[in-house]
Design goal:
mainly beta; six-stranded antiparallel beta sheet; 7 helices
Length: 769
């Protein structure tokens, strides 16, 4: 029937069916690569370019898009880029605004890019900015060792715009917000902790003088805010001190863009986040943070901060870690919700509280609610085991004892990320808060610090309550968990699902495979695992990052997992890797079902570089604790795509996600030989390889099913007509100046529009969504 419809549409169109991060690599294989440089001005400080998302499917068959949205900077001639520490994405979006820049560079193929000498400008075209777009912000801290053996630490941000009708194309402006040394041959004058960002381009971060070697060094603990809009690309913005500059007590190179909001205090503070500018009554992005005096610290007036304990009411005596901000409005008369983990008693004690509070337009506390984790937690989801037998809902605390909320230890308290707790409102009478527990012995003794920080047995605990009823009784369950099976004594974890049919393996053409439904015909494809199962014991944990919600209560987190895989000869094996999980919420049963979005080893074709890259590392733990570079609650926007009504979408749809960012190490297969071998690092895989390895901030967001060409959310004849019209115009998405080219017809990503694109689209339309 559909083939007949296609033929009719072709006839009507007067056509016959023909036979048909910047995501870039350097113009030469191998070093130096094309990462922008820390200490050069101009485009190295501010660059605008296009990034096209590559569509991919989750293990349950849901479409998303992925791309390296920003690469880390180059600070050493022996490495392609720096490494990422804490990352964040804005917690709100701006709508129907002009794009941040007037024009953007775009390219298609190896060698194109924005580096003035390491990319070939002849590959590039200039695209006009958008007249009306949606905008969000991203940011990360990065670190490296320079050629002079000095510690390099920078804050990099980005302002991102997209046309809601074409969400697969992002218009990115990358901004070098702050640096800590003026060159690779000079000592550092500050060290940074990430931080938050908003959709207006404000970045908040922490700075101190820990182990700095340069002069003049900053003193004490400090909070900064940098406006990407005001950053002058002719200047380097080095943070140093203490010299009086304008209204700032301290010295910064780019005074017009930088506010110094807490200066040289002797009180320890966690890295801050932001009350977004478009939620603030004063029209600026206000800092929100926490200190070691157990206070909530916020910018109560522009340029001034105050510290209060009211967020801990009525019974929290202490808190731990950084503040999370969610755009969800749980309390009446507020513009968002703050959250932090806390204690009912002072040390020694468990961190057993989730504390949430309303935030008004001035950052003030407006309403509080606290939840004490129960002494036993049961996963409400009953799933078939890996061998097909039934398992009972797992009582996590019964196996591992009482747990306490963590992910705040060690360097996270000073470096970020941010934060440990995610909050969402999923309906008029339902709100959720979640954080990650670390398991402890059943005798209830307070844990020792070293054990706590690297414990591999973790669970994401979630509490549900009615925000309209202050006396509502909260309900608890688990989203995901790792543990020891009491029956076997072996490591165990929650089941992972996939649309792979009865045998649990893809591409075997068995019953239930790729039918678009996850049901009893689909066997489990794997389980969550403990980190030591992957590493062999060093580090041993943690095994689950903090969670982040989307608008519908689906949770995202990085964790260790094992997937059963089949080789071409029919043999099978268990593949342990770190993965980005998505836990899909079922409100009726108050339970979550796991799928995998990205696994270490996954490869994607970069649509701009036209070079395939492999994800080779996802941060989770360092030598003894949570890594600052792993996933935190502020890595995802608690929103549906483009701020749409989340009630319009089933929870399993990818449109429930407003967007997320993820720290990854990626290797581009420059010579297209399929081996992804980087020539750099302490153990280079192939010293002569031309492949290129970068630390990258990956973006994952909604893209429609590729055949849904008009983005309506369903497949019909309008999609075919829209594609034909763009194909007829030759819209290649890069060089076509025709304003009618609202979407590229380069369907196969080859870099130009030809008959292959038409055939590819017809095949996709035939397959359906």
């Amino acid at each position: 029937m559909r083939k007949t419809t296609i033929a009719l549409m072709l006839t009507a169109a007067g056509l016959a069916a023909p036979a048909m991060a910047q995501d870039s690599v350097g113009k030469v294989g191998g070093l130096p690569g094309d990462s922008l440089e820390v200490w050069s001005t101009g485009v190295h400080q501010r660059a605008s370019y296009v990034v096209d998302l590559t569509p991919f499917r989750s293990t349950t068959g849901k479409f998303f898009g992925i791309a390296p949205i920003i690469k880390a900077s180059k600070a050493s001639p022996t490495f392609y880029s720096s490494l990422l520490s804490g990352q964040t994405i804005s917690q709100t979006m701006r709508f129907q605004v002009p794009s941040f820049a007037n024009s953007y560079s775009a390219w298609r193929g190896q060698g194109g890019g924005v580096h003035p000498s390491e990319n070939d400008a002849s590959f590039n075209v200039t695209l006009p900015g958008l007249q009306s777009s949606t905008q969000f912000g991203v940011a990360f801290a990065e670190f490296a060792t320079s050629a002079g053996n000095f510690s390099v630490n920078n804050i990099i941000g980005g302002i991102v715009n997209f046309n809601p009708a074409d969400p697969g194309r992002l218009y990115v402006t990358r901004v070098n917000a702050a640096i800590n040394t003026p060159s690779g041959s000079a000592g550092d004058t500050a060290q940074f902790g990430m931080g938050g960002v908003d959709s207006n381009g404000n970045i908040a971060f922490r700075a101190d003088a820990n182990a700095v070697t340069g002069s003049p060094a900053i003193t004490g603990v400090n909070y900064f805010r940098v406006s990407m809009d005001q950053r002058n690309p002719a200047n380097l913005n080095q943070i140093r001190g203490p010299v009086a500059v304008g209204l700032n007590t301290g010295s910064v190179s780019d005074v017009g863009s930088t506010d110094w909001l807490i200066n040289s205090t002797t009180t320890s503070h966690n890295p801050p986040t932001l009350l977004p500018e478009n939620r603030s009554t004063s029209g600026d992005g206000r800092l929100m943070g926490s200190n070691f005096n157990r206070n909530y610290v916020y910018e109560n007036a522009p340029g001034a901060t105050t510290a209060v304990a009211t967020h801990r009411a009525p019974s929290g005596l202490d808190h731990r870690g950084g503040v999370s901000f969610s755009q969800a409005t749980v309390f009446p008369g507020t513009v968002g919700t703050g959250a932090i983990i806390g204690k009912l008693q002072l040390d020694p004690s468990f961190t057993e509280l989730l504390m949430v509070w309303g935030v008004d337009g001035g950052g003030n506390v407006s309403g509080t609610r606290q939840f004490t984790r129960p002494t036993a937690l049961v996963d409400n989801l009953n799933l078939p085991g890996l061998t097909g037998g039934a398992i009972t809902p797992w009582n996590w605390a019964q196996a591992s004892g009482v747990g306490d909320f963590r992910h705040y230890n060690s360097q996270v308290a000073f470096r970020g990320g941010n934060g440990t707790t995610s909050v969402v409102r999923t309906g008029q009478t339902e709100a959720l808060a979640a954080a990650t527990l670390f398991a402890w012995p059943t005798n209830g003794a307070p844990p020792q610090s070293a054990q706590t920080q690297a414990n591999p047995y973790n669970a994401i605990a979630v509490v549900k309550w009615d925000p309209t009823n202050a006396n509502s009784v909260p309900a608890w369950t688990l989203i995901g968990w790792t543990d020891v099976n009491l029956g076997t004594g072996l490591p165990d974890g929650k089941i992972i699902r996939g649309d792979y049919g009865n045998d649990g393996f893809p591409f075997t053409s068995d019953a239930g495979e790729f039918d678009g439904v996850i049901d009893d015909q689909d066997a489990a494809i794997g389980r969550q695992a403990s980190l030591f199962e992957l590493t062999g014991g060093a580090p041993s944990g943690p095994s689950i990052s903090p969670p982040a919600f989307d608008a519908n209560g689906n949770a995202y987190f990085v964790g260790t997992g094992v997937i059963r895989k089949r080789l071409q000869d029919g043999s099978t094996f268990e593949d342990f890797d770190n993965m980005l999980f998505r836990a899909v919420y079922d409100q009726a049963s108050f339970s979550w079902q796991l799928e995998v979005l990205v696994e270490v080893g996954d490869t994607f074709l970069g649509r701009n570089s036209q070079t395939r890259y492999q994800v080779q590392f996802l941060e989770l733990a360092d030598a003894d604790s949570t890594s600052s570079g792993t996933f935190f609650s502020n890595n995802a926007i608690v929103s549906a795509f483009n701020g749409e009504n989340p009630g319009d979408f089933a929870n399993e749809q990818s449109r429930t996600l407003g967007g997320l960012v993820l720290n990854a190490s990626i290797v581009y297969d420059y010579d297209n030989d399929g081996d992804y071998n980087s020539p750099t690092g302490t153990n280079p895989q192939e010293p002569t390889s031309p492949d290129q390895q970068y630390g990258a901030l990956m973006y994952i967001g909604y893209v429609p099913c590729p055949a849904d060409f008009d983005g309506s959310g369903f497949l019909d004849s309008d999609d075919f007509v829209t594609f034909v019209s763009q194909f007829s115009l030759g819209c290649d998405g890069a060089g076509s100046p025709d304003p009618a080219c609202i979407k590229s017809a380069d369907f196969d990503g080859s870099g130009f529009v030809d008959s292959d694109d038409f055939v590819s689209y017809v095949n996709a339309f035939e397959t359906g969504c």
